[in-house]
């Protein structure tokens, strides 16, 4: 079996809708990469704040200890999530489990309780966003957030929009950028895994792939919201790249006889079948990607 691509970059986003971290390797867990979307900022009603409403979140940088991506690493009292943003003092949030909980937290259709990171973090995000806010952490001990069973029954996430992994290719980004007056970086699309070496948009039809010894299944093309139109360096929104994507990446173009014609697609949502808690599993930049099964056409894919 010949490789179809290589892993070019690995990204994770500790705080939902805030800036991502690029790493050379990342431990896998049953909810996605370790630390991915483990935190979310919520408003006074407990609803998740995202760049769709608060584009300033794009400017919030997060940093984890270098050792946090080592297998088996556990935080101690001097381990922090460090948070920075323009015009704000640095915020340090202990990685040790907080004692307080926050009830009535909701992300899309899911609601439950979460761990509350305290008043200092709340004050920081309240000042930054200009509205009452709290930073909360997913409580894996008491809560489960299942993936939509219509697409991938039996899987779960923390505060991701819907699925444990989002994969995109450099070829797809290059193809888009050839059509744009001003090219956009991959951070507009917030993937977890960026691969290189395959044809543009070939990842759309990947039904089953292997990276290392792990089997990933493509379960749903990623329908894009307004976030790709937000410049992640200055939080300013414009019409591109969505305006161009509509012309060649809409459901109307890709699947004219199916549902979802008004949506725009970029990237493939994936689940990993070989993951059980406690197993030491890592993927690395440079790992080969092998395609095991493909969909025969866009009509077979889910959207």
Automatic annotation (TrEMBL):
Query: What's any GO biological process attached to this entry?
Result: monocarboxylic acid metabolic process
Which GO molecular function terms does the record list?
A: catalytic activity; molybdenum ion binding; pyridoxal phosphate binding
Q: Where is the MOSC domain?
A: 133-292
Q: Which Pfam families match?
A: MOSC (PF03473), MOSC_N (PF03476)
InterPro entries of this UniProt entry?
MoCF_Sase_C (IPR005302), MOCOS_middle (IPR005303), Pyrv_Knase-like_insert_dom_sf (IPR011037)
Protein's name according to its UniProt entry: MOSC domain-containing protein
- Please name the taxonomic classification of the source: Eukaryota, Viridiplantae, Streptophyta, Embryophyta, Tracheophyta
């Amino acid at each position: 079996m010949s490789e179809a691509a290589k892993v070019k970059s690995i990204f994770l986003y500790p705080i939902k809708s805030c800036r991502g971290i690029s790493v050379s390797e990342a431990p896998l867990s049953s909810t996605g990469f370790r630390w991915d979307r483990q935190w979310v900022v919520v408003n006074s009603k407990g609803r998740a704040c995202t760049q769709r409403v608060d584009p300033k979140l794009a400017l919030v940088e997060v940093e984890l200890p270098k050792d946090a991506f080592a297998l088996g690493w556990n935080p101690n009292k001097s381990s922090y999530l460090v948070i920075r943003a323009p015009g704000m003092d640095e915020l340090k949030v202990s990685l040790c489990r907080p004692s307080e909980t926050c009830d009535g937290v909701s992300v899309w259709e899911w609601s439950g309780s979460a761990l509350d990171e305290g008043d200092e973090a709340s004050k920081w995000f309240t000042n930054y966003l200009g509205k009452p806010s709290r930073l909360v952490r997913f409580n894996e001990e008491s809560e489960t957030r299942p993936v939509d069973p219509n697409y991938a029954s039996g899987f779960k996430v923390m505060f991701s929009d819907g699925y444990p992994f989002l994969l995109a290719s450099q070829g797809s980004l290059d193809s888009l950028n050839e059509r744009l007056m001003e090219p956009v970086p991959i951070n507009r699309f917030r993937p977890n895994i960026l691969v290189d070496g395959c044809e543009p948009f070939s990842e759309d039809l990947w039904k089953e792939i292997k990276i290392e010894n792990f089997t990933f299944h493509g379960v749903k093309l990623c329908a894009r919201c307004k976030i790709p139109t937000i410049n992640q360096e200055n939080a300013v929104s414009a019409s591109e790249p969505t305006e161009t994507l509509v012309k060649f990446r809409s459901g109307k173009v890709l699947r004219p006889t199916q549902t979802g014609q008004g949506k725009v697609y970029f990237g493939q949502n994936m689940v990993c079948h070989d993951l059980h808690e406690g197993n030491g599993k890592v993927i690395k930049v440079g790992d080969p990607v092998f395609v095991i099964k493909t969909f025969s056409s866009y009509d077979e894919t889910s959207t």
